[in-house]
Structures are given as C-alpha cells and as structure tokens.
Specification:
- By secondary structure, the protein is an alpha/beta fold.
- It is 42% helix and 19% strand.
- It contains eleven helices and ten strands.
- The two termini are 28 Å apart.
- The protein binds 5'-O-[(R)-(carboxyoxy)(hydroxy)phosphoryl]adenosine and zinc ion.
- Zinc ion binds next to helix 4.
- 5'-O-[(R)-(carboxyoxy)(hydroxy)phosphoryl]adenosine binds next to helix 5 and helix 6.
C-alpha cells in the first residue's frame, strides 16, 4: 500500500511516498529557509505563498523518485495541525483535491504524532509500549506517555519557549543564522572550554520545561551585563549543555516514573547530536531516534503516522479542517 504524506505546517513543503507504513520510496522536502532567513524567522504569509508555488513541483518530483503514478497512490495523509493556519490550509486543500480527484481516502495527521512515528520508519524497530516520547521542535517541547498506537497522555510541556525556539532566539543573540539549532551546534563544537554553567529552570510540575530565563541570561552575558563576555563558541556550548541537560533529566525521570520500555526522541531538535548522545547515555531504556534528516519536518513522517491511523480506521471526509492549535495527549 502506497501512502502519500503531505506536510506544510511551517516552512517546508514536503511530500513523500511511503510503502506499507515503513519503506520510504520518496521523501521530497522543499525548504524555505533562505526565503525566511533574512527576516530571522518564518514569515507566515510568505510561507503560504511559497507552499502554493511548490506543491505541484514537489508532488511531481516525489512521484518521479518513487517511480509511481498517481493511480498507484492508495491513501492521502496530510498534516492538519498544529502549525501556521495559512500554511496548513495550502497542504490540506491540496490533499482534499487529490483525494477527490483519484477517489482515495484522506487521513488527517497530527504533526507531533508524525514526528514520533518517524522513529519507526525504514529499518527502525517495532514500537515497544508503553513508550515515552520527548518531542522537541520549533514550536513544541512535550513529554508524552504513549500507551499504544494513538494513545497519548501529555505529562509535561514548556511553560514558555519551545526548545527549538530557544535555540533560534539564542542564535540570533549570538549573531548566527536561521534556523539557529544547527548553527549553535556547529559553533558549540568549536568551543575549547565552556563558559561556566548556565542555569536550569526549577518548575512546580516535574516534567515541565522553561527556557526563557536561560535565554535572558545569555542576553545579559552577551551585552556584557555580567562582566566580560566569553567567546561566543563557549557561550553556545554552555547554552546547548543547559538545554540538553534539562530535556534529558526530565525525560529520564518521566521514563523511570512510568516504567516505560523505550524513549522516543522526536522533532527538529532531536537532530542535535549532543542531545542524542546524552539521552542515550543516561536513559535506563533503549532510545529510539530517527536519523537526523527524518527529525526535521518531512512528508514521510506524516505518511507513516497516517498509515497507522488508516489501520485504526480513522479516515476523514472532505469537510476536514485545519487545527492550528492541535495538541497531543
Ligand atoms: O520539527 P521542526 O523541523 O519544525 C517544527 O515543527 O517546529 O523543528 C525545527 C526546529 C528549529 O527551531 C531548529 O532550530 C531546530 O528544530 N533544530 C535544531 C537542530 N536542527 C534543527 N536544534 C538543535 N540542534 C540541531 N541540530
Ligand atoms: Zn515539526
């Protein structure tokens, strides 16, 4: 069975063809990074317009790479939230038009669920439940208990900035490009010594995160309000260490408290090699994490999550709407 996965929730126009829920036949991502870079962040209106222009060429390329024709697509899975409303609408309407044109079922996918399912794509292992998912992206930092397919309970979340957002904001403070995560990771790798220990937030709920205090601290250091500023590579390394430590500490605690059988690390920030290695070191159970290219937004993760939804009998009608504020758990 060939599932077409369509993802347009933010600044990537992405379409994939995935066979039987696992095997990626094509995974085309048209990134808008350059378009938004000069503004230092994603401009929603520009994102929608760019999605409109990219949809058909990206579909053509995906079908070509997968060596399938439209009639060989069996189901259409599409992100319906969370994300930017205008951007989501482009992908959703495109998916509906296709479903109507080739008379195939339409499946709505939660973007966050897509990030989780990316972990089991290709040669990944079978999921072991209960699992603990740490979803860290540009818009979300969630600790989610996954009791089975489609069964989620959110245990913790960020009370202010998402982890990826913190990377992006601190990158801007350090004069680095957008997106900030990869830029900070590269700079931190050049640091000889770290710039001392930066704070970790203490919160009332055990699995919640907060990164805005850390960002303010970096801002004060950069402005010289805390004495002579250290080299930016040292500061980037100390910032990265603080974020990674907070994420790993909370995820490991939640995993232990809920006796899970595995931890799934998901979302764009899961591409960070420090986070991957520190979590693998400190986790009491196996850590499943997608290869870095499948951590950031892509269509294959939507196709594989959509396949599972289809197996569970969850298809949508053409009245399906976007849900920009959709949560998980
Ligand atoms: O999941 P994603 O592609 O889009 C959203 O759903 O938000 O995540 C994008 C976020 C950005 O904030 C980006 O800076 C961050 O993921 N990111 C990273 C790395 N690669 C991407 N953060 C830290 N280290 C990385 N290597
Ligand atoms: Zn994402």
């Amino acid at each position: 069975m060939n599932v077409l996965g369509i993802e347009t929730s933010c600044d990537e126009t992405a379409i994939a063809v995935v066979q039987d829920g696992r095997r990626i036949l094509a995974n085309v991502v048209s990134s808008q990074v350059e378009l938004h870079a000069r503004y230092g962040g994603v401009v929603p209106e520009l994102a929608s317009r760019q999605h409109l222009q990219a949809m058909v060429p990206v579909l053509d390329q995906a079908l070509h790479e997968a060596s399938v024709v439209l009639e060989e697509i069996d189901v259409i899975a599409v992100t319906h939230g969370p994300g930017l409303a205008g951007a989501l609408l482009v992908g959703l309407n495109f998916a509906k038009a296709m479903a109507l044109a080739i008379s195939r079922p339409l499946v709505a996918v939660n973007h966050l669920e897509g990030h989780i399912y990316a972990a089991w794509l290709e040669r990944g292992p079978e999921p072991e439940f209960p699992a603990l998912a740490l979803i860290v992206s540009g818009g979300h930092s969630d600790v989610v208990l996954m009791e089975g397919h489609g069964r989620y309970q959110r245990l913790g979340e960020t009370v202010d900035d998402a982890a990826g957002e913190a990377f992006d904001k601190v990158a801007r403070l350090l004069g680095l490009g957008f997106p900030g995560g990869p830029a900070i990771e590269r700079l931190a790798a050049e640091a000889g010594v770290k710039a001392g220990r930066l704070p970790r937030a203490r919160l009332e709920r055990p699995y919640d995160f907060s990164f805005s205090g850390l960002k303010t601290k970096v801002q004060r250091i950069v402005r010289g309000e805390e004495g002579e500023a250290p080299p930016s590579a040292a500061l980037a390394a100390a910032f990265q260490e603080s974020v990674v430590d907070s994420l790993v500490t909370k995820a490991v605690q939640a995993a232990t408290d809920h006796a899970v059988r595995e931890i799934v690390l998901a979302g764009g920030v899961a591409a960070n090699s420090q986070l991957r290695s520190v979590l693998a070191e400190r986790s009491p159970v196996p850590v499943v994490v997608p290869p870095p290219v499948l951590c950031t937004d892509n269509g294959a993760m939507i196709a594989t999550a959509g396949y599972q939804r289809l197996l569970d009998g969850q298809t949508s009608g053409l009245d399906l709407d976007i849900d920009p504020g959709l949560r998980i758990g």
